[in-house]
Design brief:
This protein is of the alpha/beta class and 108 residues long. The chain is 51% helix and 23% strand. The chain has a four-stranded mixed β-sheet.
Length: 108
């Protein structure tokens, strides 16, 4: 299953998080199925001319970690906000209780 995730997303590795850290977080939080389905739902709203990136963010002092789906597009900020809201009202509201504070998305 991780092979499929690696085909669907780029991984934003930094000095604190490796690709393996991201994959471990996905496994530990049962996000695999949602991440495999996400690109279909995101592309229904944003179209095919996007790139999807997974990025792990955390704050050790506040004791939280969250995985972000970054939607890279060429939309203007105004268009991106409209599409993010459309995604919220179509797909995201159906999964938000499953992902709670472990997964989020934004458009860049």
């Amino acid at each position: 299953m991780f092979d499929e995730i690696e085909k669907l997303y780029k991984f934003n590795e930094d000095e604190w998080h490796s690709k393996q850290d991201i994959l471990k977080f996905i496994k530990d939080n049962n996000l695999t199925d949602i991440l495999i389905d996400a690109p279909i739902n995101i592309r229904e709203v944003f179209g095919d001319d996007i790139k999807l990136v997974l990025e792990l963010e955390d704050d050790p002092e506040e004791n939280w970690t969250e995985l972000w789906i970054i939607i890279k597009s060429n939309y203007t900020p105004e268009e991106a906000i409209e599409l993010e809201l459309k995604l919220l009202h179509t797909w995201w509201k159906s999964i938000k209780d499953k992902v709670r504070d472990k997964l989020n998305y934004m458009c860049e």
